[in-house]
Amino acid sequence: MTVTLRYFAWLRERVGRSEEVLDVPRGVTTVADLIGWLQTRGPEYASAFERAEVIRAAIDHAHVRQEAPIAGAREIGFFPPVTGG
Amino acid sequence: MSVSVQAEDFDITREVAALTSGRTDIGAIVTFTGTVRGKNEGAELSSMTLEHYPGMTEAELARVEAEAHARWPLQGTRIVHRIGTLAPGENIVLVVTASAHRHAAFEAAAYLMDYLKSRAPFWKKETDASGAGRWVDARESDDAALERWKAR
């Protein structure tokens, strides 16, 4: 499955890019699986996704929990807890 | 209902006028303005930079706004949130609510700010006098603020 990933704030800084299109392997079915897979992609990902429990995600511009399935997603965003306002 | 995410400053008078122009069914207007504090946890800031998630930000603010309209009898609402680099004292966010009566306007403004702070995808990075940057941590008190709306 091909999906666009977008990274924000310190996640973006640690990964070293703001977005990329990746081919996600079969077996990666939830946001949590995707975080686990990304952690293995290199030191920059390991650093960015080190504390998986603090990372928030959105599928196609809507907040989701990490147990959410990613099937059919066009864009998945990863970011720290929001601090606007 | 309308939402803007913009680098430019906003003009409260103009925003209120746009919401109320030609209407006589509004009896109460509440505005909330958030501004950049020059000090955070004792440290002096030289600037604050706001990053956001284009596309999702607008969608999330519109969802929060629609929820407020479902909850209170509102004649109009307006949300403006700035992005980019801002100096201490500058405006960050504007929320305007208009209703026939003050309670709905006050409560809806507080609700919009509480939900905006916990859900709208913005991130603040502070820069101090030495030029060092630091991402602002989310506050648990902001999540706690939501509980009062769930209880009713």
Which labels suit this protein?
heterodimer; A: 85 residues; alpha+beta; Ubiquitin-like (UB roll); five-stranded mixed sheet; 3 helices; B: 152 residues; Aldehyde Oxidoreductase, domain 3; five-stranded antiparallel sheet; four-stranded mixed sheet; 4 helices; 37% strand; globular
Please work out how many helical segments of chain B DSSP would assign.
Answer: 4
Overall body shape of chain A: globular
**Tell me about the biggest sheet of chain B?**
5 strands, antiparallel
Number of strands of chain B: 9
The chain-level mean pLDDT of chain B equals 95
- Give the N-terminus to C-terminus distance of chain A in angstroms: 36 Å
The total strand number of chain A stands at 5
Which range best describes the helical content of chain B: under 10%, 10-25%, 25-40%, 40-55%, 55-70% or over 70%? 25-40%
Largest β-sheet summary of chain A = 5 strands, mixed
Question: How is this structure best described in words?
Answer:
- The complex is a heterodimer of chains A (85) and B (152).
- Chain A is of the alpha+beta class.
- Chain A has a single domain (2-79), classed as Ubiquitin-like (UB roll).
- Helix content of chain A is 26%, strand content 27%.
- Chain A has helices at residues 9-15, 31-39, 43-48; strands spanning 2-7, 19-23, 56-59, 62-64, 75-79.
- Chain A has a five-stranded mixed sheet.
- The longest helix of chain A has 9 residues, at 31-39.
- Chain A is globular, with a radius of gyration of 12 Å.
- By secondary structure, chain B is α+β, with helices and mostly antiparallel strands.
- Chain B has a single domain (2-140), classed as Molybdopterin biosynthesis MoaE subunit (Aldehyde Oxidoreductase, domain 3), CATH 3.90.1170.
- In chain B, 36% of the residues lie in helices and 37% in strands.
- Chain B has four helices and nine strands.
- Chain B has helices at residues 12-20, 56-71, 102-119, 140-150; strands at 2-6, 28-35, 39-40, 43-52, 74-82, 84-86, 91-99, 122-128, 133-135.
- In chain B, the strands form two sheets. In chain B, strands 3, 4, 6, 8 and 9 form a five-stranded antiparallel sheet that branches. In chain B, strands 1-5-7-2 form a four-stranded mixed sheet, sandwiched between helices.
- In chain B, strand 8 and strand 9 form a beta hairpin.
- Classes of the chains: A alpha+beta (85), B alpha+beta (152).
- At the A-B interface, helix 1 of A face strand 4, helix 2, helix 3 and strand 8 of B.
